[in-house]
Design a protein that fits this description.
- Its main location: membrane.
- By secondary structure, this protein is mainly α.
- Helix content is 56%, strand content 6%.
- The protein contains 22 helices and four strands.
- Helix 9 (148-163) packs across helix 17 (341-358).
- The termini are far apart.
């Protein structure tokens, strides 16, 4: 067979990859706020990642020069996105597409363990609903969403090991080591499944006296881990920012962001309570989760060994516990819970493969196109049933996320409107302070870079970290930036907004800051109001204010 024939044969056998890619672009286009169909990505976290990533591309160091607590790979990804589109999060859209594509591909590989190729393709096409389930997948571009396929890849390796007497090739251990390093430097609270997997496999090899397999585990996993982490260690050492990285990424996260002061055991029980509540709160989640887990444990076609089933359950529980460890029930940010979903996928995949076998469902060359297209349409319909983000897109002009004015004239959200004003009225790059709330997207649209360590506020009560707002007040008092943006509830003036008494000193729903009354005198003395704009955000009607430094 000629080289050309081999290439054609290889491509024809993998045509499903092109289908997965097209479906990923289609589905993400309708649900992710980074999509070209949307006006703007309003997510405070996403804009914060983008601001820090863009700053990194300009030599401003995370942790050392600006305060932010996610891992460095998050900022690198968003920094690269800023090179594609510097005033929007459009550059993140390819990463979102890649994440969903990899999810479908790994589900295909899992299904292939138990069924034929075309059936596995059909099952993979039906799976995106798990990754795009609102409100867990809200605006998109969360670490949980981007690492969704990594968590699925771990489960796939467990399934492979279960079928091969727990003997794995070196390249799979290397890949898992890399994914551990990647996750460690993106959001280490997502490492629960890997921790249990590695401890269990190490213990298994000790019990079986499989020293060769243990050496392979250590050697190849360490190689993958170093590939992911060593470049950052060198970077932080070279820029003298290693101490700042450890202090912010580990100490601050563990001591300031945790909401629960209970004992370790009590926090673990709280985590399981949260997970149990999650499994009960939606019929689809209950069926795919609780009922699905029971089905998986008693089915003989999923895991081949009892040890494999036990390990899956342990990984699932510890994964769930780590994700929300240190949080009280009812106080968890729902996008954290998206990391529960990879474990919901597995019972559903095997339920499909078993149904295909039992009812002798055949997909062949004659009905292939019809079946796969039907699966794509059904999957899209399911996604629209659990995620209505498209209602805030350009397809619905002047929706409430853009403006609350009743008008037929095309409108833009406050972020785009203010960004144009700042760029047109600034000499060179604008300097900006986002006062009192998490990044509202104005650094993104104006092109401004952080010029102060606390360039935004955080989900931290004022009495836990008073230096944040105190530092911002100093910037305003000393007139250190040209522009200031802040927000109040609709109908409230800057000088009369005291904050909500029930959440004193903390950002509240709608990303509304803790109050502007205390800062109003100094602010209005040094800055004048240029414009304001009211739109809906996360169930709250919010007025955004743009102020410019007085000459």
């Amino acid at each position: 067979m000629s080289v050309s024939s081999k290439v054609k044969s290889w491509l024809s056998k993998r045509a499903y990859l092109g289908l997965f890619l097209l479906i990923s672009i289609w589905f993400m286009g309708f649900v992710s706020y980074t999509s070209p169909l949307f006006y703007f990505d309003y997510s405070p976290d996403n804009n914060c990642f983008f601001t820090v990533g863009k700053a990194l591309m300009h030599g401003i160091l995370p942790y050392k020069d600006v305060f932010e607590q996610k891992g460095p790979y998050v900022y690198l990804m968003h920094g690269l996105a800023s090179l594609i589109s510097s005033r929007s999060l459009l550059g993140i859209f390819p990463f979102e597409v890649l994440s969903l594509f990899l999810t479908m591909y790994i589900v295909y590989k899992i299904a292939r363990l138990n069924t034929y190729q075309l059936a596995a393709c059909a099952i993979a096409i039906l799976v995106p609903v798990f990754q795009l389930f609102h409100p867990y997948y809200n605006y998109g571009d969360t670490v949980e969403s981007l690492l969704f396929p990594a968590m699925l890849a771990l489960i796939y390796v467990l399934l492979k090991a279960d079928r091969a007497h727990f003997v794995l090739p070196g390249q799979l251990w290397c890949l898992q080591g890399f994914l551990v390093g990647l996750t460690f430097l993106m959001k280490y609270t997502l490492l629960g499944g890997w921790i249990i997997f590695y401890l269990a496999m190490f213990g298994y090899y000790v019990k079986q006296k499989s020293w060769r397999e243990m050496a392979k585990l250590i050697r190849w996993s360490l190689l993958g881990f170093l590939i992911a982490t060593l470049p950052w260690l060198i970077f932080f050492l070279a820029t003298h920012s290693l101490t700042a990285f450890f202090h912010v990424y580990f100490y601050e996260n563990m001591h300031i962001y945790m909401l629960s002061d209970n004992s370790v055991f009590a926090k673990f029980i709280e985590s399981l309570t949260i997970y149990s509540s999650f499994l009960r709160q939606d019929p689809l989640i209950f069926v795919c989760g609780f009922v699905g887990y029971v089905y998986l444990l008693f089915s003989r076609s999923t895991f081949q060994t009892t040890w494999g089933k036990m390990l899956f359950v342990m990984m699932m529980i510890v994964n769930a516990a780590f994700i929300v460890y240190g949080y009280h029930p009812g106080q968890v940010y729902q996008y954290y819970e998206l990391a529960f979903f990879p474990y919901l996928v597995i019972p559903s995949v095997f339920a499909f493969t078993n149904a295909i076998k039992r009812f002798n469902i055949t997909i062949n060359d004659q009905n292939e196109s019809l079946v796969l297209l039907s699966c794509a349409l059904i999957s899209f319909f399911l996604i629209l049933g659990v995620n209505d983000n498209i209602l805030s897109s350009r397809i619905f002009p002047n929706n409430s996320s853009v403006t609350l004015n009743q008008t037929n004239r095309p409108q833009q959200p406050a972020q785009v409107e203010f960004g144009k004003l700042m760029r047109s009225q600034s000499k060179g790059r604008p300097t900006l302070l986002n006062y009192g709330s998490i990044d509202m997207g104005f650094y993104t649209t104006s092109g401004a870079l952080p010029s102060t360590y606390y360039f935004q506020n955080y989900n931290i009560a004022h009495d836990k970290a008073p230096q944040i707002l105190n530092s911002q007040a100093t910037v305003i008092k000393k007139r250190q930036v040209q522009w200031v943006v802040l927000n109040t509830p609709a109908g409230k003036q800057i000088g009369k907004w005291h904050g909500y008494a029930s959440a004193k000193g903390k950002i509240t729903s709608g990303n509304i800051n803790p109050g502007t009354k205390k800062i109003a005198k100094s602010l209005l003395k040094n800055y004048r109001v240029v414009t304001n704009h009211t739109q809906a955000f996360e169930g709250a009607n919010v007025t955004y204010w743009l102020l410019k430094r007085k000459d």
